Amino acid sequence: MEESKGKMRNLECFEEKIRFDYKYGQGILIRQRKGIVVLKIKYKGAYGMGEKYDAVNQKGKKVINEVNEKFCFQGDKTYCPTPFFWTDSGVGVYVDTCYTSSFDFREDEIIIETPLDCKIVLFTGNPKEIVSSYMKIFGEAELPPEWAFGVWISANRWNNEELTLKQIEMLKKYDFPATVMVLEAWSDEATFYKWNPGKWNNPKEMIEKIHDAGLKLVLWQIPVYKRMGQDEEYNEQNRLDEEEALNNKLCLFEENGEPYRIPEGSWFAGSLIPDFTNPKTYQSWFEKRQYLLDMGVDGFKTDGGEHIHSEHVNFYDGSNGLEGKNKFARDYISSYKKFVGKDKVVFSRAGFSGQHTVPIQWAGDQQSRPEEMKSVLKAGLSAAASGIIFWGFDIAGFAGPLPSMDLYRRATQLACFCPIMQWHSEPDGGQFKELMAGSSGENERSPWNIAKAYDCPEFIDEMCYWHKLREELRTYIYATAKKCVKENTPMMRPLFYQFPEDENVLNCDDEYMFGEDYLVAPFMEENQTRREVYLPEGNWKDFFTGEVFTGKQVISISDMGKIPVFINT
User: Fold this and answer.
1) pLDDT digits 0-9 by tens, 5-43
2) What is the 3-state secondary structure (H, E, C) of 235-271?
């Protein structure tokens, strides 16, 4: 049975062997035995598999496809896996399962293992055709509101009204544009839907002030009925919420009938987990949060989602813990997206296949280290190759000792040419100081605090330039975003996605296309003075100098205080 170029084929089940035509001849898909499928093709690159921090090209790796909670230095772990890949030879595969699966990318074959036989979707065509076809399986992507493409400011330490409104003053003082403010430490830290009493005198009035300043407000969320620590202040509503969850089976339960609690050693240990497959859970959970939307909150930062650590968990919809480890992340995020509607945003860390429908992803936790910036760019490009359109990261990392000025500079330049541009930081003293020596003191990653910490006031002006450039780019970015949604294509694109006939870019993980027009080649080494940039076929104009270069060559670029960006003319 043949497969023509640019086509998709659903293979619900097949007995032993399927043959299909592709770029290098005839490929074979073999059901070797129960739960094991072998794809025999020639290929040099395999892309996708979700948000992968270790490499863009996964050939030579064995990828375990499951949601993981991993604080910094993710390596081969990920918050957002996807059982989908495509190759340079024009073949793509999506495995339609939420169970943990593995993909062994060997020399001339790819071995896929799943606990059960499941539907395989086979694609042939070029990268754009394959990724677009995969995305269409889950429905249309959603376009975020235009304001989402400005600068996002965020810090865990803004835990009262005074500190929050102070940020508006700082933006005005230094003439920094911004469109989104994210508050993490806003709640009572018990229910995660009630404002912390005594620290927020009049939240509605404060939100109006934030809006009057031209900012939208996004609030942090976590999907738990929290177990309060012995050293924490008693919260009656927390007790009532847990009681309601247990009595009405709104939370997850083990097979033995005991409530499932996050195991010790994991984030929010001892907490119950809401079962978003239960309509009653959805109703109860979001009825308690509806007042936040009513008072003007513009969206939620949905942290966590990696909380299923047992095989023996039962969900309302009949799924179990093996399936739910990945499925819970998707159910959690999609529930919030359904709740907020189209004019507000959900900014998620965890996810699974079909994540582009949410639609905004951020890369999770990184320390302020150069090697983390390298890995986060790989994650962004892998996410893009997996159909995630809108993605961002914490500029220069959010945790540990302050980043150097040069790392902050490089990361800001990179973020300026990403779908979402955000700086975020941990609280004073460092919430993870027990994990990282030296993470005490003033850790806010605001540009003005970096300038203050290094006694370099001129750094504020330098960073202001990039914030204002981002504002100037918003017209292009939003137009690109609309086109990407319409055509089911990512905003950030590995070079091989855009130039599939150019084998010089098969393993390129430090350059990318930002939309169809901009090639971005960030400086990735701290205090780097020069870098080589490969320009694919075409004519390329330097974004900052106007100098024009012919493609299909490597050029050397000096650091003149600007990130290498070229316009495809």
Assistant:
1) 468 788 766 667 899 999 999 999 998 888 899 999 999
2) CHHHHHHHHHHHHCCCECEECCCCECECCCCCCCCCC
Helix pair angle (161-174, 203-212), 10° resolution:
10
Q: Which residues pair with 18 in a beta bridge?
A: 29
Q: pLDDT tens digit string along 97-142? A: 999 999 999 999 999 999 888 899 999 999 999 999 999 999 989 9
The distance from CA 443 to its chain's CA centroid, rounded to whole angstroms, is: 23
Q: CA 41, CA 91: separation in Å to the nearest integer? A: 8
Residue 319 lies in a domain: yes
Do both 172 and 294 map to the same domain?
A: yes
DSSP assignment, residue 53?
S
What one-letter code names the amino acid at 275?
Answer: D
Query: What CATH number is associated with residue 78?
Result: 2.60.40.1760
Copy the structure tokens of residue 295.
């008072």
Residues 132 and 178 in one domain: no
**Ramachandran sector of residue 304 (left: φ over 0; alpha: ψ -120 to 50; beta: rest):** left
Euclidean distance between CA atoms 414 and 404, whole angstroms: 15
Residue keyed to tokens 């694109």: 493
Residue 449 lies in a domain: yes
Write the CATH number for 524: 2.60.40.1180
Q: Please give the angle made by the CA atoms of 489, 494 and 496, to the nearest 5 degrees.
A: 100
Asked if residue 238 and residue 114 are part of one domain, the reply reads no
Does a structural domain hold residue 262?
yes
Q: Is 103 helix (H, G, I), strand (E, B) or coil?
A: strand
Q: Classify each residue of 315-347 as buried b or exposed e, where b means 16 or more C-beta atoms within 10 Å of its C-beta.
A: bbeebbbbbbbbbbbbbbbbbbbebbeeebbbb
User: Are 128 and 153 in a shared domain?
Assistant: no
CA angle in degrees (0–180, nearest 5) for 154-140-66: 65
Residue 219 sits in a domain whose CATH number is 3.20.20.80
Active site residues: 303, 306, 365
Cα–Cα separations (whole angstroms), residue 276 to 221, 286, 313, 442:
15, 11, 14, 38
3-state secondary structure 283-342: HHHHHCCHHHHHCCCCEEEECCCCCCCCCCEECCCCCEHHHHHHHHHHHHHHHHHHHHCC
pLDDT of residue 116: 83
Beta bridge partners of 48: 85
Reading the block at residue 136, the tokens are 């269409």
Q: CB neighbours (10 Å) of residue 312?
A: 13
Centre a 10 Å sphere on the Cβ of residue 383 and count the other Cβ atoms it contains.
Answer: 28
Bridge partners (DSSP) of residue 8 are: 123
Does residue 2 form part of some domain? no
Question: What are phi and psi for residue 248, nearest 5 degrees?
Answer: -105, 10
Q: How many domains does the chain have?
A: 3
Cα Rg, the chain, nearest whole Å: 24
Q: 564 near 531, Cβ under 8 Å?
A: yes
Among 448, 482, 516, where does a domain finish?
482
Query: 257 with 211: CB under 8 angstroms?
Result: no
Q: Which domain holds residue 81?
A: 7-136
